[in-house]
Amino acid sequence: MRKRLVRNTILVSVMVLVVLATPVILLLQQATQDELRGRLAAQATSMSATLAEPLLSGQPIDQARLVDLLAAGDHVEIRARNGDLLATAGSVTGDLIHATVAGPADTRIDVSTNRADVRRRFNGQLSLLGVLAAGGVLLAAVLASIFGARVSRPLEQLSSSAARLGAGDFSAALPPISGIREIDDIRTSLESSAMRLDHTLNSERSFIADASHQLRTGLTGISLQIELLASHPDPAVRTDALHALEQTDRLTATLDELLDLARGGRGRLRVPVALEHIAQQHRVDWMPRYQQHRRSLTLSAAASDQPTPVLATPGFVGQIIDLLLDNALRHGTGDVDITVSGRQLRVNDQGSVNADHIATKFLGSDDPVSLHGRGLALARRLAQADGGRVELTSSSPTTFTLTLQAAHDSQG
Fold first, then answer.
1. What's the domain range around 234?
2. Which of the listed ranges 180-184, 216-220, 334-338 does the model predict with the highest average pLDDT?
């Protein structure tokens, strides 16, 4: 910014000088000519006063006296009323500049000199003017550099502090007050925003911690009740209880992972997992709800002796699958199929959607009455937090694809 300010100041100064150069040069040239004519006229007037007696009496003019009155390099002619030459002195040639005054007895005294003297005087004054102009541009550059440093330094410090605040470092110190009102207003606004954000995040983290504690306490109580049912003499009850206990354990693990994400964690709980295994677990969980709506939920996987493991947080992957299956159940039509291929998992139903509408949902719209709710935005954020992505790969039939990082990519 400082260099740009100095460069623009020099450019503006030069443009102003260029615009003013023509009239200034013309005025300077005219002033030089007027000054020279004034000198010649003053010299002629002095001659008129000195030679008044011989001119009035008609006596011859003393040539030596006339030469003494004439400046070196000038030429003088004294003519009578009828134009006859009475006296002359000096000799000049070339382009001349004249000054004529009326003398005694209607005589005319004409003093002239070569214009080279005008050009010499003009060039000297023009050189002086050029030196002053160069000094003015240099002074403008120095002042612009000083002012630019005063302005840019606090702005650069504000930019650095804003970048740290944007990264979540609310301990970043703001620059001192600069004395420039506009910059200090920005500093005050940034400081107020940082304090509000810090207070809001602390409140949210406290709420999340309290909520997770309460949820974990409730889940623990539910798990104890389910463990009692697991000892029931009826085999069917025991089977259902064990399945419910497994779901409760997964929900507790997911809660811990979501809490870590809310606190700013990213990737610390990622481990190599098998997508097909997680998909099968959640398919079993969702089968009763799909059966209630008389819709089938199938799982198919690419034939491979060694499935490709992905690096992911198991709770996040399970949550994404739940969100996609819930979306298909609520807003899709027909049978739903889960397909696992390599590091990708696809969920498709038999319906169709507007791709632009779904793209809006992926941006996190809060419209609660839209066809596809905010669950898709949450699925997208969870996938991004795990180094993957969720995309709408087909609008008819509706197909969402979860892509994660292969475990061997991170190891390599």
1. 181-259
2. 334-338
Do 65 and 76 touch, CB atoms closer than 8 A? no
Helix axes 275-292, 314-331, angle to 10 degrees: 30
Confidence of residue 72 (pLDDT cuts 50, 70, 90): confident
Asked if 377 and 276 sit in the same domain, the reply is yes
246, 310: one domain: no
Q: Which pair of structure tokens corresponds to residue 217?
A: 């306490």
Q: Could you please report the per-residue DSSP string of 223-240?
A: HHHHHHHTT-SSHHHHHH
242, 259, 276 — which closes off a domain? Answer: 259
Task: Report CA 323 to chain centroid distance, whole Å.
Answer: 38
Q: Which amino acid is at 210?
A: D
117 with 194, same domain? no
CA–CA distances in Å: residue 56 to residues 44, 105, 172, 309: 16, 6, 98, 127
- For residue 102, the cross-strand partners are 108
Number of domains present in the structure of the chain: 3
CB 148 within 8 A of CB 1: yes
CATH number at residue 360: 3.30.565.10
Residue 174 forms part of a structural domain = no
Query: Using one digit for the tens of pLDDT, what is the confidence trace for 41-66?
Result: 898 888 888 888 888 888 888 888 88
Nearest to 115 by CA among 33, 39, 34, 44: 33
Pick from 273, 207, 239, 232: nearest CA to 405: 273
Check: CB of residue 98 under 8 Å from CB of residue 114. no
pLDDT digits (tens, 9 = 90+) for 169-213: 555 567 677 777 777 787 788 777 777 776 776 676 667 666 766
Residue 357 has pLDDT above 50, yes or no: yes
113 SS3 class = strand
Sign of the CA dihedral 302, 308, 309, 315? negative
Give backbone dihedrals phi and psi of 338, rounded to 5 degrees, phi first: -105, 125
Asked if residue 407 and residue 271 are part of one domain, the reply reads yes
In the chain, the amino acid numbered 391 is E
